[in-house]
Amino acid sequence: MSSHRLSGEGAIQRDRTLSFTFDRRGYTGHPGDTLASALLASGVRLLGRSFKYHRPRGLLSAGSEEPNALVELRAGARREPNTRATMIELFDGLTARSQNRWPSLAFDAGAVNSLLSRLFVAGFYYKTFMWPAAWWERLYEPAIRRAAGLGRASREADPDTYEKAHAFCDLLVIGGGPAGLAAALTAGRAGARVILCDEDFLLGGRLNGDRHQIGGESGALWARRSEAELRSLPEVRLLTRTTVFGVYDGSTFAALERVSDHVSVPRPHQPRQRLWKIVARRAVLAAGALEHPIVFGGNDRPGVMLASAVRTYVNRFRVAPGRRIALFTACDDGWKTAFDLLEARIDVPVIIDARREIPPALRAQGSRHGVRIMTGAHVLGTRGGKGVEAIEVRGEDGRVSRVRADSLAVAGGWSPNTALSTHLGGRPRWSEAIGAHVPGDLPRGMTAVGAACGELALAGALRTGAAAGREAAGSAGLEAPLEQWRTEEEPVGFARRWSVSGHRGKAFVDYQHDVTVEDIEIAAREGFRCAEHLKRYTTLGMGTDQGRTSQLNGHALLATLTQREPADMGTICARPPYTPVAIAALAARARGPQFKPCRLTPSHRWAEERGAVLVDAGEWRRARWFPLTGEADWRSTVAREVAGVRAGVGICDVSTLGKIDVQGADAGAFLDRIYANMIATLPVGRTRYGIMLREDGIVLDDGTVARLGECHFLLSTSTIHAGRVMRHLTHARQVLWPQLDVQLVSVTEQWAQMAIAGPHSRELLMRVLGDAVDVSGPRFPYLACQEFLWLGRPARLFRISFSGELGYELAVPARYGESAVRALMAAGGTLGVVPYGTEALGVMRIEKGHAAGAEINGTTTAADLGLGRLVSARKDFIGRVLAARPGLAAADRPALIGLTPVERSARLSTGAHLLRPGAPATLSHDEGFISSTAFSPTLRHWVGLGFLSRGRERIGERMRAYDPLRGEDVQVEIAHPVFYDPAGERVRS
Amino acid sequence: MVDPTCGPLCAFAGLPAIAGSGDGVVAKERDGLGIARITARDRQLAALERLVQRRFHLLLPKGARRTGCGEVSLAGVGPESWLMTCENAGNAFAIGLRDSLGGPATVVDLSDAYVMLRLAGAKVRETLAKLVPVDLHERSFQVDDVAQTVAEHMAVTLWRLGDLAGGEAVFEISVGRSLARSLHGAIRESAAEFGFVFEPA
To answer: Which of A193, A596, A741 sits opposite B41 (nearest CB)?
Structure first.
């Protein structure tokens, strides 16, 4: 295959050669190439197959709007499907494969779909797969799912890393073309903080693809010099390879920086991509405009290309897309392509302009080159195998002739790139001046400039860009002179041509989704008159390109078919993201073990040393159990830990429970309003169990309140609700009762707190604490608490018990938590002290009938939990009024009960439904459920807690515990929820 | 009575001391700080202000600002509430404060609740930009500014100290002790491309 590379500089580095493969065949290119330009330079123009009909497709564009040239980039774990060849910056060793074809790109069996194309028209699915209904799940859906989707994702874990970053600026410039550069230069020179993002790796936009003059130098050179100047400004940040893909509230923008996509493997410690969250005082939308094709027969044949893309390949990449390139245009701009081709000594057999009248200057320039010019003419169709070989043209006189050409450049006119202007709900507005939509209501602080606002000529782009840059600098309190640059005059005349009547062969409106003129006609006939409905019915504008090259033509066609003007037709509202964003970039570091931060307990290192099995409990990582060598399974470990506590003494790190310090003259009164039970009457040096309700009367949390001083309380909360309770209290203090003298501080992190439980716990504490505090029964009774100094450091002791045994909780400053555990373990050696984890903790609390998260689950009242007697009738508190609602006070509400299996060896399962024996297993017979279960090593059978309608009146009754999920059906006996030491003698011993 | 078998545990013990090459970010553990939260009691703000000025020669900063004198610093972290630190004072600091400020203020010892890192280096802002949604530009986040924010879902307090002689910015970031390892990991990995050096206490 001979080279299509032209001589001359362009924007590629010819002194270096890069090797790459496409469909396993080796090619070369240069730094500065894209995969598309390098393949084109090697004469490859068949790059893919279309989605539905598997038609051969080549490059349409040279940018991110590319609908056809989607390839699989890289291999193995780094394989990325649906990557646009026009956006892949070439690197050495790049591998790419075509997709959606079998067995090969050149011969694709799927092309048989083309023969059935009369079947596969718009609405085919909706009409065909309606009947018989029973076939949907068995046949239709699986078959459609197999056929759906494009490209193959790698099934291996992504080996690369991704990260997020925040940025703030006075001005965010979206797009680095002439308008964007002008804005950035103007604001940047004034000292404004500017961020300029461009999806390309080369700044300049159309200045690289076209031949412009700015101030006497080439546009490309001006772009290079501007870039260098911007890089020298300390407050300006240039982000190339970066797509601003979303606009969000609060002047926030999301951008994706492809940090390492242009290298085969990211450099050490570099992410593959970085997600930027940018907060900008002002934003300039300088995203340019997109050129539209014209719809005619065979307009998808490889070799048919946007005229501006042809110029880009010629001028920027120095590649001739063909040897003999015809031009079909409806605007002055298209003529530039012909002139640039002629300049590069590429044969232009004909310039076909759909307009009858064209500027004399253009005609003269064309004639000077001796090019055949056809005005008022239209391309009806193309001929060729897997590429254009000839075109059929209908002249102004109606005669059809055939012109030999291997390529056809098509210039349908320019349409501002309005996508980001609509993310916050703005609607594009039709502009008769340019025959396209321009941004309508812009997000606050955003200005559209240059081609993005309809200023299609270079002079206008520079002028509007500079004005917006100056305005943005002004809003940051900076004075910026209005920059002016000298450019040449450009003709920008046009006559809109959406499609060609009488076309020959299939005429594609949306290339990626194979939507044809016929499909639009069907949609119009069937009443889909709205742009959004057209999209859903025909899939026009869906897919990775989101119809950037098809929306305008499709909507204009529908307008014509329904006898409306494009202005009345409207268009769709684009939503983020502008171009596809990898999920990995959105997740960034939050994956695998780093999915969320992990809170470690003060005794974590000690627990790890002892071989504890750890469990993530909410934010915390806690010891679940401490296995010993020779133990058969976790259940025997837990049974040993429970038995060790019940018969001797055990230690458990309970630092994760929330701890809130409440002080102030009104602290007692405040807590009386927070808790359902009385708190103000609690004597100093004592602890009390308390429950707090939500405003709606449901229990929010439970815990203990210790009174450390007259005006000093310490609250404990459940681990899971610690943050929520702190917010609840803060709201009450700051909003409900700001007049109270109350100060709140979370001290959860300050104190390491160890539960010491079991009949020998007092002995153990005496050994450890010595004279620091008197823990003897009479001096330190059940529910006592005390602050003291231990080894010269503050410490706190509470006589409270979750296990049902004689128990204490010892609190020390967190950094001493580990040494405290080691001291307790050392002192308890002869007492047989056992460390125990969350599992044993859970077993013992179920044996003791304590409600926990499964019971205090956001649906239960104090009465449901058997705590109704705690609720004070002598005071007001949050939740009091709504707790008395008829629904919450009904006698037949499910109440907390205990459950034991009638057959003692049977296992109980959490979630089982409670049914009367013999009752059918239907919802209407459901009377309750099991909330917590455990095998009780103490009782040697399973026990459970649950809720049963009128449960407390039904102790001794037998029910079915029916668990269809696990296929279990067990007969259970309703019991009092406290299985162990119901009189509470052990905790008071 | 049993003597504990080991002393205080450094929250960052055993964590990697370097990542990448170079010293774009240097994180130094701030250990031994006495940290206390002081909150003015109802209608006692003026009295507290007088007391703090007399005792520590400091004015209570207004809003999210920080001030320091000698070994003591004060940072505004809430309505009429400050985080007060003292070098090498440990838990004794809060006990002493309770005696001196306990009349007009509630004093709560948080010396163990937080771990703190002092961050410096040429790339400290670039690194923090990956972690906190705060504009750290020198004009936006000035010397002695304080931010209570989040770093990768962790509640952190961040403040800026005076620049080094060469103009290099210095920040201190603190997080709940239980999150020390997670914060260290987040900073280490974010700084790795610039080179990260950790100096334990």
So the answer is: A741
